[in-house]
Design a protein that fits this description.
By secondary structure, the protein is α+β, with helices and mostly antiparallel strands. It contains three helices and five strands; from the N terminus they run ββββαβαα. The strands form two sheets. The chain has a three-stranded antiparallel β-sheet with strand order 3-4-5, with helices on one face. It has a two-stranded antiparallel ribbon with strand order 1-2.
Length: about 140
């Protein structure tokens, strides 16, 4: 499975099938159309350690303590479409984890913000000077 720059071996993906919940008529009790896809992100040789860590973080409650991502797909009434859906959701998650934000340069304060800061400091100094005075001056 190709995801961006990463080539994930099909043997790393473990799929199990179950009966989907919800409406489906007579067929819902006979056919296992729901797909549970498991991917061990922490031990995958296809992913660098930083991408795997970010993937586990992004997965949130879909990740186990061992670093296995579990995606349950039952949106469609057919097993092949649910398999595609689960794989597409995993691929989207991996792409989000692999995305690097551009480092931002620190911005400089504007001239107006510098003036406001200096004016505010000046007013505080006046207030502090008044505090020290007594009424006898």
């Amino acid at each position: 499975m190709q995801v961006g720059n990463f080539l994930i071996d099909e043997r790393e993906l473990i799929e199990t099938f179950a009966r989907a919940s919800g409406p489906g008529g007579q067929n819902v009790n006979k056919v296992s159309t729901a797909v549970e896809l498991r991917f061990d992100a922490r031990r995958s040789p296809a992913l660098p350690a930083d991408v795997a860590a970010k993937l586990i973080q992004l997965a949130g409650s879909r990740a186990t303590l061992e670093g296995v991502i579990v995606i349950f797909a039952q949106r469609f009434a057919s097993q092949p479409r649910n398999r595609e859906d689960a794989r597409a959701r995993l691929a989207a998650l991996i792409e989000r984890a692999a995305h690097r934000d551009k480092p931002r340069r620190p911005t400089r304060p504007t001239l107006a913000s510098k003036k406001r800061r200096l004016e505010a400091k000046g007013r505080r100094g006046d207030i502090k000077a008044l505090r020290g005075r007594t009424g006898e001056d």
